[in-house]
Structure formats: C-alpha cells, structure tokens
C-alpha cells in the first residue's frame, strides 16, 4: 500500500496556503491509499521560538479547528483515501513535562504522530538546527565547531527516544539526520556512524518506528534522504519499521524523494 506519513498543511505558519484538498487530490492522483497530515504542533508554553519569525509551530488557538477540519475531510474522502489526523511534535530539552501534558490532552485524538528534534539547547539558549545556512553558521561560532553541533543534535535525539513522555508519546522518530541539511556547505570531520548506530539500537529497543523522509533529496545543501540509505540498511537489519514521509509543505512536493528511496517495498503504514 502506497502511503505518505509526513505531510504539512495550510495550518503551517512557515509553509504554503495550499488547501487540504490540494494535498488530498494530489495524493490520489499519485496512487496513494493513505496519508497522514502531521502539522507542527504548537510549541510548549514558556518556550521562546528562536527563529526570526517565531513560526516553527502551529498557533495553539487553531488546534481545535485543525482537528475539526481533518475530521470532516476524513469522512468526505473515506472512499478515496485513508486520512490520518496527526501532529509532528517537537522534543525540546527542558520542556519534557510540558510536552507530556500536551500529549496527554491531545493524544487520544491523534491517529498518527511523529517526534522530531529541530531545537538544540546550549546553556540557556536554543537554536533551530535546520532554519537556514546563516543560522547554522552562527551555531558553528557559538558551538566552536560543526562537530559539536552534530554531537549536540545526536545527544538530543537520543534523549527524545529514551524520554518518558507518557502513554501518548509518538511511536515514530522523525528525520534522524536533519542536522545534515547543510552538509554540502558545512561538512563535519567525523561520520558520526557510531552515534547513528546507537540511535538505531535505541529505536529498536524501544520498539519505535522511523521516518524515512524524502525531503532532504531536494535540499540543495543536503541531496540525500533523511536518513541516507546506509542508515536504512542498518535499520532493516534491526527490523525497525520504516514509514515514508514527503515532509511536503506544499501539495506539489508530495512524493518528493520517493523514487530515490531504497527498497520502497519494505515501507509500512503508520499506526497510532
């Protein structure tokens, strides 16, 4: 069954205003039988978004409208495609309690969800690791090296896997090599192979799934999926379920990277 488990929506403050129907009709045209809308969840209360426009997460006041809209669309298109109501939830070091409270409230509504790391903490300051090459360059100065950023990213990712966020913690870990987004311009001097293998071991041990994300292929400074195919081969060895995600922020980006993915036949469907 062909499906996309990571799709954004007009509720994304840093995406496009393409209608839900644009995404759904495009998915049907491409032969998808299932789609998960996983909009960026509102950021925790008390967390200050470090991006210039403070637009990393959905406005909390729109959350109920988001759920209602998708509930209506699920019924309208139920004969054409299975639609999952989902969220992409940020793991933010220091805000585990707030995230657990959010998941306890809204987890029962969700059909699907992803747990991702976009923000790194250094001292009392937070950085968005994938915002822009310029912000990444500033991080290099503040962290003193590219390698230190990668270390911090993989350490935070490991925390996201092992942290207790309650019974509604997402079962799928998002784009685990997102820190590679600018690798063509800012290349670390280490492969971080052992870090990644340790993360895969923890994903397997905690019986989690992995977002096999095609978006990186279209990023000019990345040019590979998140994660790259050697990591997918290691995930397969560990019997980690893999779910394709376009990570589309506009309807025309559905299916991005899909044809370049390794062993597309082993991709699975998300579960609650």
SSE class: alpha/beta
Mean pLDDT: 96
Low-confidence sequence ranges? none
| Main sheet summary | 7 strands, parallel
Can you count the beta strands?
Answer: 9
Q: Which sequence of strands runs across the widest sheet?
A: 1-2-3-4-7-8-9
Cα-atom radius of gyration: 17 Å
> In sequence order, what are the helices and strands, one letter per element?
EHEHEHEEEHHEHEHE
Q: What is the number of helical segments per DSSP (H or I, 4+ residues)?
A: 7
What would CATH call the homologous superfamily? Metal-dependent hydrolases
CATH class: Alpha Beta
Give the termini distance in whole angstroms.
17 Å
The name of the CATH architecture is Alpha-Beta Barrel
Beta-strand residue percentage:
15-25%
At CATH level 3, the topology is TIM Barrel
Catalytic activity: L-histidinol phosphate + H2O = L-histidinol + phosphate
Domain PHP: 4-213
Enzyme class: hydrolase
Protein name: Histidinol-phosphatase
Structure explained in plain terms:
With 272 residues, the chain is α/β, with parallel strands linked by helices. The protein has a single domain, classed as Alpha-Beta Barrel (TIM Barrel), CATH 3.20.20.140. It has 7 helices and 9 strands. The strands form 2 sheets. A 7-stranded parallel β-sheet has the order 1-2-3-4-7-8-9. A two-stranded antiparallel ribbon has the order 5-6. Strand 8, helix 7 (229-237) and strand 9 form a beta-alpha-beta unit. Helix 5 packs parallel to helix 6 (193-205). The protein is globular. The two termini are 17 Å apart. The model has no long low-confidence stretch (mean pLDDT 96). Keywords: Amino-acid biosynthesis, Histidine biosynthesis, Hydrolase. Its EC number is 3.1.3.15. It comes from Fredinandcohnia quinoae.
């Amino acid at each position: 069954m062909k499906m996309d488990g990571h799709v954004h929506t007009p509720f994304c403050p840093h995406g496009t205003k393409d209608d839900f129907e644009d995404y759904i009709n495009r998915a049907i045209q491409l032969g998808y039988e299932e789609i998960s809308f996983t909009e960026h969840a509102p950021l925790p209360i008390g967390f200050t978004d470090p991006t210039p426009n403070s637009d990393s997460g959905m406005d909390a006041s729109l959350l109920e409208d988001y759920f209602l809209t998708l509930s209506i669309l699920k019924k309208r298109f139920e004969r054409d495609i299975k639609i999952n109501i989902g969220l992409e939830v940020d793991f933010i070091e220091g805000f585990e309690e707030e995230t657990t409270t959010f998941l306890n409230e809204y987890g029962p509504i969700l059909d699907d969800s992803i747990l991702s790391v976009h923000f790194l903490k250094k001292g009392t300051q937070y950085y968005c690791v994938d915002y822009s090459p310029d912000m990444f360059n500033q991080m290099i100065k503040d962290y003193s090296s590219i390698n230190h950023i990668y270390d911090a990213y993989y350490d935070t990712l490991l925390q996201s896997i092992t942290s207790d966020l309650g019974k509604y913690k997402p079962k799928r870990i998002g784009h685990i090599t997102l820190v590679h987004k600018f690798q063509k311009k800012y290349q670390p001097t280490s492969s971080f192979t052992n870090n990644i293998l340790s993360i895969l071991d923890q994903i397997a041990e905690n019986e989690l799934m992995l977002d096999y994300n095609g978006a990186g292929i279209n990023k000019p400074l990345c040019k590979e999926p998140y994660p790259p195919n050697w990591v997918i081969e290691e995930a397969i060895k560990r019997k980690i379920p893999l779910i394709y995600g376009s990570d589309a922020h506009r309807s025309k980006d559905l299916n991005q990277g899909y044809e370049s993915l390794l062993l597309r036949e082993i991709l699975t469907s998300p579960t609650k």
